[in-house]
Write a structure and sequence with these properties.
mainly alpha; two-stranded antiparallel ribbon; 2 strands; 21 helices
Length: about 425
């Protein structure tokens, strides 16, 4: 297992510079472009960080690519250290370094995206709730800092409101120790606690953006050329590509894209089946990584409950690998939070008993985790960031990434 963990760390160390080298211009619309969304065309979802980058570039002539690199590296390293320290007693170290957990962004060219910002914000909120639970900070400070961090996250990407806010609301509810109050009352109280964040989330959903705003943002970056390079001249196109263009999409556009995946194949592999198998294998590793009955039950309960919360993202967006990454890391933090704070007894809640058949299924499933090959198989397992294909699957595995294909070296591409 130490050898496997070492290989995963090599993937991460190799992947970080490859991520940077692969995202050096405006033309990287789904990565660099995600950070360039700003308020130049008025208030719009995801525009907070882009406005800061725009202001720094405009006032100090700083290369925006350099700013995005610096922010992304700081966010990933901070998240890596925090999750590792917080979760290492509940999950094996090699698994935390794997492509299912913290290795995912480095291997899948997702380091220069806002996912790590959202996860870091979520992790900090969990730590604040833990400090409050242990009477180390007051309720007022917990309220202020939790909402402040969540609002910053929502202003950067509204998806935080779809998954993180519901999870935080439930965590705040179950940390209330007054047994006489119903669970519904506790959830309502927790909802009031996060009301400022909820209001901002609703505003971001209402001001989702339109084509005129998107074009204004796109045009606003032209004056920084060639400080902001664009080898393919995408900065001079009449309309933007990548993340900026998606801001003008309607809900029906997203649903059509999701439905289209049901008719997609990669060679002989049906794409939806590939994603379902990926989700299932990821859950097996997550739940069965440490064979303790109580811990397996807790992991099963948290992971499946969170999957239900993440369902809207899986319906509205096809970046399934990214959703799996958010789902796995956030679930790991919640499991560790509950395990570290023995005051929380989930068995008191009636819904916990519903999961008993699933707990038995995961405990008794004849999976390879009962053999010595368990950890080594992860070298051949990968989670593509988006749009599953045989080529992208091989590219997302540690062995494939190091030997056959990555953003700089890919002889495999001409073969598949």
């Amino acid at each position: 297992m130490k050898i496997v963990g070492f290989i995963f760390l090599i993937c991460i160390l190799v992947g970080i510079p490859i991520n940077l080298i692969s995202n050096t211009s405006y033309d990287a619309g789904w990565t660099i472009g995600e950070w360039l969304v700003s308020y130049q065309g008025g208030f719009i979802r995801r525009g907070f960080s882009g406005s800061i980058i725009y202001s720094l570039t405009n006032n100090f002539n700083i290369n925006p690519i350099f700013l995005i690199w610096t922010i992304s590296l700081v966010l990933y390293i901070s998240l890596f250290l925090l999750v590792y320290k917080y979760c290492k007693s509940v999950f094996p170290k090699y698994l935390l370094f794997s492509p299912i957990f913290l290795g995912f962004p480095a291997i899948n060219n997702n380091l220069i995206r806002k996912d790590n910002l959202l996860l870091l914000a979520f992790c900090l909120c969990i730590i604040l709730i833990e400090l409050y639970l242990n009477n180390k900070i007051t309720k007022f400070y917990t309220f202020c800092f939790t909402n402040f961090i969540s609002i910053i996250a929502i202003l950067n990407h509204e998806s935080y409101g779809f998954w993180a806010l519901p999870i935080l609301i439930l965590l705040i509810a179950i940390t209330k120790n007054k047994i006489k109050n119903s669970l519904f009352y506790k959830i309502k109280s927790a909802l009031y606690f996060l009301l400022p964040s909820t209001i901002i989330f609703i505003l971001c959903c209402l001001f989702k953006g339109n084509q005129e705003q998107v074009n204004i943002i796109h045009f606003s970056w032209r004056k920084f050329y060639p400080l902001l390079p664009s080898p393919g001249n995408e900065i001079f196109l009449p309309q933007p590509t990548g993340t900026m263009s998606s801001l003008a999409w309607k809900i029906t556009d997203s649903l059509k894209l999701t439905l289209s995946t049901f008719g997609q194949f990669s060679k002989f592999v049906w794409i939806p089946a590939a994603w379902l198998i990926t989700i299932f294998i990821s859950s097996l590793y997550f739940i069965n990584s440490i064979s303790q009955k109580k811990l397996i039950e807790l992991k099963s309960f948290v992971l499946i409950s969170e999957f239900l919360i993440f369902t809207p993202l899986f319906i509205m967006g096809v970046d399934y690998g990214r959703w799996i990454y958010l789902w796995i890391i956030s679930s790991a933090m919640v499991v560790s939070f509950i395990e570290r704070n023995q005051k929380i007894n989930l068995s008191l809640h009636p819904i916990y008993k519903i999961y008993e058949p699933l707990n038995k299924f995961y405990r008794n499933f004849p999976f390879i985790h009962k053999t010595n090959m368990y950890s080594y198989l992860l070298l051949f397992f990968g989670i593509p960031g988006c749009c599953w294909s045989i080529f992208k699957y091989i590219q997302s595995t540690p062995i494939g990434y190091l030997t056959l294909c990555n953003s700089l070296y890919c002889p495999l591409k001409s073969m598949i």
